[in-house]
Write a structure and sequence with these properties.
With 373 residues, the protein is an alpha+beta fold. The protein has two domains: 259 residues, no CATH class; 90 residues. It contains eleven helices and five strands. The radius of gyration is 30 Å and the shape is elongated.
C-alpha cells in the first residue's frame, strides 16, 4: 500500500517538475537565443555555429532553474493531493505525515545529485565546448562586415566603413584600415584602402572594389600609393573578435581545484586577489548550491500542516512559497560573498547544514500526535 502511494506521489512530482523545468528553460533559452543572433548579424558566424552554441547553453540554464523548479513542483504536488482530498485518505488510512516528508526529502536528494552532476561536470564542459566553437569558427557572412555608416571592427586588426548601400546591393565610399596584416594579399604591413564603390561576389566570400587606391606603409616608414580600377579582396578564413578566452564558468572543476591548491597557476582565471576570489565563488556555487534543494523540500512540506478547509490555507501556501523562494535568493547572495574569506564560505555552507535538522525536527514535533504506523 505504502509503496503504491509513494510511486504515485513520485510520478506526480516528476510530472510537475518536468513541465515547470521545461517551460522555464524554453522561455529563457528563447530569450537568450534572440540575444545570440548578434553572433550572426554582428560577428558573421554561420547559422550552424549559432544554433549549436545556443543549444550548448541549455545545461547552464537547467543548473540555474532546477532549485526553483523543484520548489514549484513540490508545492504544486502537495496542493494537488490536498485539493483532490487524497491526503485525507492517506491520513485516515494510518499513514503519518512524516512519511510523506521523508519521501519528499528523498526525492530532493535525487534532484540534488542531478544538480550536482550538472554544475560540477556537464555545464562547465558544454560551456567550454561552446567557447571553442566560437574560437575556431571562421567568418561566414561577408555582408555582416559591411554596415552603413558604422565602423565595423569585428575582425581583429581590420576596420571597415561603408558610407551607403544602394538598393541594387552596391556599396559607396568604402574605407578599410588593415592594421593587423589581415589582408595578406594586399600588403605585408599596415595599409589603408579606399574605393568609391564595391559589391560582394556571388559566392559572398569576396569583396570587389572599384575605382580606388591602396596606401601601404613600407618597412622604411614611407608610404606608397597604388591606384586601381578593380581589385578583389578574399575575406574567407577570417576569424572574428568574439571573446574566445575561457571564462571561469567554462573552466573545469578539476582545474579550479588545482588552482586553489596552488597548482597550474599559469591558467587563466587563476591569479591573485580578485581572480582568486571569483574562482572560489565559482567552486562554492558548484558544490554548495545543490545542498539548498533538500532545505527547500522541507520548507514546502509545511503545507502538510494546513488543510484546505482552513481560512488561512490560501495564505499559507503563498507564505511557504515566498519563504522557500527567499531561501534560494539568499543562497545566491551568500555565494557571491563566499569567496571573500573562509568565514564567509563557512556561513554559506552552514546555512543548509544548520537549518535542515532544525526544520526537520520542527516537522516531527508538529506531527508527533498523529498515528505513527
Amino acid at each position: 500500500m505504502k509503496n503504491r502511494i509513494y510511486k504515485y506521489f513520485f510520478y506526480e512530482f516528476i510530472r510537475y517538475f518536468s513541465v515547470v523545468l521545461f517551460a522555464l528553460t524554453a522561455i529563457i533559452w528563447t530569450i537568450q537565443a534572440v540575444n545570440f543572433l548578434d553572433l550572426v548579424v554582428e560577428d558573421g558566424h554561420a547559422f550552424r555555429i549559432y544554433i549549436l552554441y545556443s543549444f550548448l547553453t541549455v545545461p547552464k540554464i537547467l543548473t540555474k532553474l532546477i532549485p526553483f523548479s523543484f520548489l514549484i513542483a513540490s508545492i504544486l504536488t502537495i496542493l494537488k493531493f490536498e485539493k483532490d482530498n487524497e491526503l485525507i485518505i492517506l491520513w485516515t488510512s494510518g499513514l503519518n505525515k512524516i512519511h510523506i516528508v521523508n519521501l519528499v526529502f528523498k526525492i530532493s536528494l535525487l534532484v540534488m545529485l542531478l544538480q550536482f552532476f550538472l554544475s560540477v561536470a556537464i555545464t562547465p564542459k558544454t560551456l567550454n565546448f561552446s567557447r571553442a566553437l566560437l574560437k575556431n569558427s571562421e567568418l561566414q557572412f561577408v555582408p555582416s562586415l559591411l554596415q552603413e555608416r558604422k565602423f565595423n571592427d569585428t575582425v581583429e586588426g581590420l576596420t571597415i566603413f561603408v558610407d551607403k548601400k544602394t538598393d541594387s546591393g552596391e556599396y559607396k565610399n568604402i574605407f578599410i584600415r588593415d592594421d593587423g596584416n589581415v589582408l595578406t594579399k594586399i600588403s605585408t604591413g599596415s595599409s589603408t584602402i579606399f574605393a568609391k564603390s564595391g559589391y560582394i561576389s556571388s559566392n559572398e566570400k569576396s569583396l570587389i572594389l572599384l575605382d580606388g587606391n591602396i596606401q601601404k606603409l613600407e618597412d622604411d616608414n614611407s608610404i606608397s600609393i597604388i591606384t586601381f580600377e578593380t581589385t578583389q579582396l578574399n575575406l574567407t578564413g577570417l576569424s572574428t573578435k568574439t571573446i574566445s578566452e575561457t571564462k571561469i564558468q567554462e573552466t573545469s572543476t578539476i582545474e579550479i581545484i588545482s588552482c586553489l591548491a596552488g597548482e597550474n597557476i599559469g591558467i587563466r582565471n587563476c591569479g591573485e586577489s580578485e581572480e582568486i576570489k571569483e574562482v572560489k565563488i565559482e567552486l562554492n556555487k558548484r558544490f554548495g548550491m545543490p545542498f539548498f534543494i533538500p532545505l527547500v523540500s522541507l520548507i514546502s512540506c509545511f503545507l502538510l500542516t494546513s488543510k484546505k478547509e482552513k481560512i488561512n490555507f490560501g495564505i499559507n501556501k503563498h507564505i511557504y512559497f515566498i519563504f522557500g523562494f527567499s531561501v534560494l535568493v539568499s543562497s545566491e547572495i551568500a555565494v557571491r560573498y563566499s569567496g571573500i574569506s573562509f568565514k564567509h564560505a563557512a556561513i554559506y555552507y552552514l546555512i543548509p547544514i544548520i537549518f535542515l535538522p532544525l526544520i526537520y525536527l520542527t516537522l516531527i514535533k508538529k506531527f508527533k500526535y498523529e498515528n505513527l504506523n
